[in-house]
Amino acid sequence: MSAPARVLVVGAGIVGTCCAVYLQREGFRVTLIDRDGPGEGCSSGNAGNFSVGSVFPQSMPGIWRKVPGMLMDPLLPLSIRWRHLPAALPWFTHFTMNSRRRRVEEIGLALKALYGHVLDAYDALLKSAGAQDLIVCRGRLTTYESELSLQKDAYALELRRRHGIDVQILSGDEARKMEPALTPLVKRAAFLPAYAHTVNPLRLTQVLAEQFVRDGGTVLRETVRGFEAKDPGPPRVLTDTGGHDAEQVVIAAGAYSGRMAAQLGSRVLLEAERGYHLSMSDPGVTFTRTIMSSDRFITITQMEPGLRVSGISEFSGLDAPPRYRLADVVLKHARDLIPDLNPAGASRWMGNRPSTPDSLPIISRSPHNPNVLFAFGHFGLTLGAISGKLIAEMATGRPTTIDTTPYRVDRF
Fold first, then answer.
1. Where are the alpha helices (DSSP H) in 5-153?
2. What does the CA dihedral 311, 312, 317, 322 come to, rounded to 10 degrees?
3. Residue range 330-358: average pLDDT?
4. What is the mean pLDDT of residues 264-285?
5. Do residues 346 and 245 touch, judged by C-beta distance below 8 A?
6. Looking at the domain assignment, is residue 372 inside a domain?
7. What is the domain range of residue 248?
8. Prior bond to 61 cis, omega within 30?
9. Considering its fold, how many domains does the chain have in total?
10. Which run of H or E residues covers position 355?
11. Is 203 within the bounds of a domain?
């Protein structure tokens, strides 16, 4: 019998790790390559949510009217380094185009197709690793500080209901019965019971990677420098320690994937949409479920290391230094929303989230080389496992669980 075909997965975040595990389950001999350890990059600092009901893009109708005001208000969640604007302009142009209602509806269908498999795809991996306790399903509470704020969210709530997502509208008092630490400023809320979250995003990725190694997989701490074309066949992956060959290569390097895809002939619209979080080990309050403030654009998640408050969308490019004063904006909103919050000793973090202008991930075979697969553009960890499953199916050449046409790399 011939030896199993070898696959190299570039990127050991949650998406790359899930790709590696699912490929391994299909019988491939898999090597996972990253300059950092599994989960130590952007995957370690996300809000921890499995947003199974977010069946719409960030670019909702009317967003183009709101962006200028968001950029000018230091307390609103959008920030850009103006010198980066020329480079980001094509992304923002497509972002605006995707806010048309017809396009929003199309994106919603493509997201629903993925979200219907999110928790099952993770459950299969965590069950094998004996770590199903890492994901809890307690729902998410979206808060509104006025009736007008709730009304502004009407279209998004309608989309969720049309796609079969349970949405329960609550009064402010009903919301505080569920989460007593919330401020009286909260007047209304929407409870989405299907939402889940992980109690530790870093440990989630690490547990999956550890099981991957126990099952015979290889993890290399190397920095990918580029690729050496071979015609025909897959490219050679060049790292700071040498080169690696395989029958197939998967690019799953998060926000850095755009540069790698360009080297392999596919230019994509991908921005490093930076997010910031604060983590508090002794916050003085606890939460049972995830909180998302529609007015303040922050997310609050109770985790093993403490309370995590996440927010901000900053467009500065991959190489600009962090602006931790933006984390202070997140903290101000958190203290307004949670009057008894104790932020003493809070740690601050910044990560580069890979963001596409239509909010859809790239799950695709390269149009230039059939031996190259792409899995990036995931805004958070929600779609990591189902993306890994789809990539593994594509690598085998058999039909995929869902139609991957909406996620092709050359759609822009």
1. 14-25, 63-72, 85-97, 101-115, 118-129, 147-152
2. -80
3. 96
4. 96
5. no
6. yes
7. 1-48+101-128+198-270+357-412
8. no
9. 1
10. strand 347-355
11. yes
Q: What are phi and psi of 29, to 5 degrees?
A: -95, 110
- What is the identity of the amino acid at 116? G
pLDDT of residue 379: 86
Instruction: With H, G, I as helix, E, B as strand and everything else as coil, classify residue 392.
Output: helix
List the one residue out of 239, 260, 277 whose CA is nearest residue 49. Answer: 277
Structure tokens at 303: 């985790």
Q: State the pTM of this model.
A: 0.96
pLDDT tens-digit map of 104-156: 999 999 999 999 999 999 999 999 999 999 999 999 999 999 999 999 999 99
Tokens 């990591």: give the residue.
Answer: 384
| Site of tokens 């893009």 | 57
Quote the pLDDT of residue 73: 66
pLDDT at 297: 93
- The band of 230, judged by pLDDT with boundaries at 50, 70 and 90, is confident
At 330, which helix (H) or strand (E)?
helix 325-337
Residue for token digits 């899995």?
375
- CATH code at position 390: 3.50.50.60
User: What is the CA 66 to chain-centroid distance, rounded?
Assistant: 23
pLDDT higher than 60, residue 1: no
Q: Where are the alpha helices (DSSP H) in 26-81?
A: 63-72
- Please indicate, yes or no, if residue 222 is contained in any of the structural domains: yes
**Integer distance in angstroms from the first to the last C-alpha of the chain?**
43
Give a yes or no: residue 289 inside a domain.
Answer: no
